[in-house]
Every structure is written in C-alpha cells, then in structure tokens.
Predict the structure of Transposase Tn5 dimerisation domain-containing protein.
Amino acid sequence: MFERFSRFDNCLAVFLVVAWKVLYLCHLGRSCPDMDCEIVFTPSEWKAVYMVVTKKALPSKPPTLNEMIRLIATLGGYVIRKSTQPGAQTLWLGLQRVNDLSHAWDAFGPDSRKKSDNQSDHTCVVQ
C-alpha cells in the first residue's frame, strides 16, 4: 500500500484534514450548541439526516448544531442520552454516512427535478 514515502505523506495529509473536521465539529457542538446547523452543513445534508434518523417531517427551521451532531452521531452508533455528548469516533462514523444520504436526497428528495417516463438525459440523433 505505501511502497513510497510520498504515498504515506499524501494519506497522512488526508487523514489530518478528516481528523481536524471531526474534532472541530465536536468542539463547536459543545461550545456553540445553539448555532444554526446550516452554518456547517448544507441543506441537503441536514434534511436527509433529519428525515432518516427521526422519521418525522422536516421542521420549518433548521435544527441547532447540537441536535444535528447528535443525529449524525446516531448514524455512527451513538445512543442519545441527556448526560453524555457524542465522541469523535461515533461522529466520524456518522459523517461517513452523511455524504451518501446527501447524494440520495439530491437525487431522489422532494427538491429533485421530476422526470417523466419518456424524458431522458441522453438524446440519440439518427441521420
């Protein structure tokens, strides 16, 4: 896998960025829990996670950052309790699923464009 030091160097750079983001979210969720989650997450990310985890209709306004972090950590195995905050590992595991849920929301969610059965992205021109 790491036959050259440059490959290890590149891998380490990516891991550092991912670790920074996870730890930053943990810290931000604890220090600014009432912040709007749309500051950190895109609308498709928070909407998809909210619908999958809570199985309720979307709220009129985005959830707080603390609520969103708890929902994401739930995807990573966190059990919601009043006295504990999610850790870096459950948040990291949950964030891995957020990307897939966001892409699915963009493709199939209520805001996706509706296609008729006869319409296609590809056109075939015969001459």
